[in-house]
Amino acid sequence: MTTTVAIGGLGAIGLPLARALDGGVEGLTLIAVAARDHAKARANLVRFRRPPRIVPLAALAEADIVVEAVPAALFETIAHAAIDAGRVFVPASVGALLPRMDLVERARITGARIVVPTGALLGLDAVRAAAEGPVQSVTLVTRKPPAGLKGAPHLVRRGIDVTGLTAPLLVFEGNAFDAAAGFPANVNVAAALALAGIGPTRTRVQIWADPAVTRNTHTIQVEADAARFTMTIENVPSEDNPRTGKLTPLSVLSCLRGLVATLKVGS
What we know:
The protein has helices at residues 14-23, 38-45, 75-84, 102-110, 124-130, 153-158, 176-182, 188-196, 247-260; strands at 3-8, 28-34, 53-54, 65-68, 88-91, 113-114, 135-144, 169-175, 204-209, 216-224, 228-235. By secondary structure, the protein is an alpha/beta fold. The strands form 2 sheets. A 6-stranded parallel beta sheet has the order 3-2-1-4-5-6, with helices on both faces. A 5-stranded mixed beta sheet has the order 8-9-7-10-11.
């Protein structure tokens, strides 16, 4: 028996994921994708062993598992279709879920599941375990090459120019909810961390534009009754989209494997 998968978006996350599924993952079959540019999508799929169909966003819900990897503006179309159909919904744009937590209530009614992948972060198992008891604080410090932050709504609204920086610049400090809204293409990690731990209003976030770094760097600091820990990860940016790390599609693939695996390691 195989579980069917559909992917919305064939960019820096969706295309590597589609290629991996086409290469063969036990228990999973890619049946459909959605993309804005159908001609480009067909060209990308031409060498697939079993090319999936290219369908409208809402039609992705015919699959058992629906993966969202599109610009945040298109999030709702995929999310509503998948959840209304009672599917397993795997969002890469986790930040877009924070202001739409009504989708969780809707999923309870329809029998759908929303499974958030770890993405470009690390240690969510530890954060989730610590959050079963009292937690005093969770902080995320993100450092990115300036080019990876260009065009973020927060920078545009504040008139912050990160071009030509010669020293690190703190461009945001606040909670995870506001970070996800201000940097929808950059810090889905903040939303994932908040959902795993103490929520988006208590999770603190700093975002730095740092010309000295070549990798997207995230440091988590947790103070809890059960443990105190600090973890740092340095992700290699995707060549196709510097806002996305190469680890993200691998994380989504690992998440999908876990949904059908006989043996699953990690909580």
